[in-house]
Amino acid sequence: MATGNNRTENELLARNNDYLWDGSGEPDPEIQSLEALLGKFRHDRPTPVFPESVPVRRWTLFPRRVRLFPVLVTTAAVVVTIAVVTFLVQGRKPVPTIVAGWNVSRVAGSPRIGPKTMGGGEEGVGRLGVGQMLETDSQSRASLQADDTGQIEVDPSTRLRLLTMGAGLKRIALDRGTIHTYIWAPAGQFVVDTPSAMTVDLGCAYTLQVDDSGVGLVRTSLGWVGFKLNGRESFIPAGAACATRPKVGPGTPYFEDASSVFRAALTRFDFEDSTSQQRAGDLAIVLGESRKQDALTLWHLLARVDEGQRGLVYDRLRGVAPPPASVTKEGILRLDETMLDLWWNALGFDDISVWRHWERSWSGAAAPVREK
Amino acid sequence: MREQFAPGVSEDAMLVSDARTGDRVAFGRLYDRYARMVHGVLLARVPVGEVDDLVQDVFLLALRRLSTLRETGSFGAWLAVIARNLANDYHRRSVPEDQLAPQGQRTDDTNEREIEHGNISGVDQSPAVAILDAIRALPDAYRETLILRLVEGMTGPEIAARTGLTHGSVRVNLHRGMQQLRAKLSPNPSEDRPGKNRSEQEM
User: Fold this and answer.
1) From the CA atom positions of chain B, what is the Rg in Å?
2) Chain-chain contact of A43 with B98 (C-beta, under 8 angstroms)
3) Quick one: CA torsion of B45, B49, B52, B55, rounded to 10 degrees?
4) For tag attachment on chain B, is the N or C end more exposed, with fewer CB atoms within 10 Å?
5) Domain enclosing residue B81, as ranges
6) Architecture of domain A95-251
7) Per residue in A205-257, pLDDT tens?
8) Which residue intervals of chain A bear CATH 2.60.120.1440?
């Protein structure tokens, strides 16, 4: 509700600021000067080409007012006629079917789909079907695209396989190499198995690397990604990275601008076969080096440290990112999932309920990844 | 407070509805309608050189999350929230805590980067960068509205329609923002003194 002061101000504004308001009235030289100077920063990019998608449902060939029923009946009749004629003409000739999969484009070199090598010209495009393997050598690159899923850029020396391409779950296995994914399928529908963890797309863009020994690294550039193996899970928001090792699973995610001392201690803590004393020392370094944005790492550590060390992590995390009022120290120390989720949501990365929802829907559908 | 839906909003709702079915042309039209708003919201918060990429990120994220938008007529306000969140993400992942400086006391490094990025046309744009910095040191509501008006060239009614704010809020933000900007740019600090006659401040 407007106060008397606001009304007075608005009336004054209406009288005196037409030019500032909508460019009408007597031009204000000062504002004109500001517009001329600042116009250099104005948005001037053309409309980008957004990813192609599945055919739309709307009947764009017809005016909106055309009734759909007669159109549908006519279309159906035409389709039936064409089908009958085709059947009669083709006889028993087998009808080609569209195989679920990804369209593949050669970017450089000679990528292979199964035994078939892609070359230039018409040979530079192909399709990766379920069960097939795409492989690039040290000189090759390829690009995969699926209209309803996303785009994957495949770097040299990479091997991946398409496992499933269902309506609700699209799944590939990255055996080795590097892929850059940009996914527009709904969160949780695109999954990549690696030798040491399963990545679940919860956002838009990330890079995933796997070396010959099965060691993996995910780096998220937009949205967020879930990393999971046998109940151990990591959430990696934009700007963060997370390593994974065979038989261990995902390590603790960290922001890539964290100090080298912090990152080295975290790697030792996650993956090295250290004594409990060494682990305590590495944890102390991580806690001591942590900044406000490292709440991401600290939150994950709550469930990964020994029970006796959990209080230390709690205290540090509370220091950089106080928990919501309903979250208690006692609850966190016993790893109450609801309280952990509430605290995560308060960190401002993204809503963890998205992950929980899809986690429930995966149970039974997503088998554990194989381990080397 | 949100504005009642303007006539253009129903067209937005239709475009959003079409875009949800996979119609990328419709989404492209939404981009055309809202790119300046998103650009302005980001420019109020992140270095100049980062804005264009982030604009694209905002729209790609919106495209992906379009199905979660409940009120299709509120596309603009929803998009602005995404843009502000991405700007926050940018700072969270790229600016170490010890380099975060209060508004108006940004680091030399940041200024150098922006001056570098601001030199778009190869001419000296230091005054423009200084003014942009002054605007970005204003409170959130004022800097965003002023950038949409002075940089993006949007009118007050356009700003209201695109951001979902009321005409009154936009008008007041423009007015008060300009007052504060004038005070910041004034070579004579005494012009900023409290209680100064409004008509004098109006210039």
Assistant:
1) 18
2) no
3) -30
4) N
5) 7-201
6) Sandwich (2.60)
7) 889 999 999 899 999 887 788 888 777 889 998 889 999 998 888 999 999 99
8) 95-251
